[in-house]
Amino acid sequence: MDSIDMKILEILERNSEISLRKIGIAAGLNSPSAVARRIDAMKKEGIIGNSISLINYKKLGFQFYTVTFVRAKYGKEYYKDLGKTLAGLPGVISVDFLLGDIDFIIYTVNRNADEYQKLMDRLSTIEGIERTDSHIVLQNFSRDNYSNIKF
């Protein structure tokens, strides 16, 4: 990794659909194929993963955004199975495993409170969950914003 690779990452983080030519100009490379080779190398090394689209859930009718903290019953490798179970629940868009008092953070989007209540009812039946603590997000100011990271 050199300074050109770092510049390419910075550009891609802001806009993964920008043309190779524009990336090259901004990163100081004259050849789009040179940019493509560098991106391919970073993908092979696992530095760049899957490209994703950031979805505006509100525009799709999902008005109820929540963050739920989950405390689980400790056991050998309990987090692996429970994490997969939580990630597979309807409305769950992200699950993080933590160290400390709270074991998981679940981020959810639902159309309304009734739909979220169904998710909470389902959570209460999952073996291994000790308790949950939910918070409704009123407004999001930043999601998946890596622009503050300097490569």
Key words describing this protein structure:
21% strand; 151 residues; 4 strands; Arc Repressor Mutant, subunit A; Alpha-Beta Plaits; 2 domains
Structure description:
The chain is 36% helix and 21% strand. The chain is of the alpha+beta class and 151 residues long. A 4-stranded antiparallel sheet has the order 2-3-1-4.
State the gist of this model.
The chain contains 5 helices and 4 strands, in the order H-H-H-E-H-E-E-H-E. The protein has 151 residues and is of the alpha+beta class. The protein folds into 2 domains: 42 residues, Arc Repressor Mutant, subunit A (Orthogonal Bundle), CATH 1.10.10; 81 residues, Alpha-Beta Plaits (2-Layer Sandwich).
The tally of helices reads: 5
Tell me the fraction of residues in β-strands, as a range.
15-25%
CATH class type of the largest domain: Alpha Beta
**Which fold name corresponds to the CATH topology of the largest domain?**
Alpha-Beta Plaits
Whole-number tally of structural domains? 2
CA-based shape:
elongated
Give Rg in angstroms: 20 Å
Cα separation of the termini: 10 Å
Give the strand order, joined by hyphens, for the main sheet: 2-3-1-4
Number of strands: 4
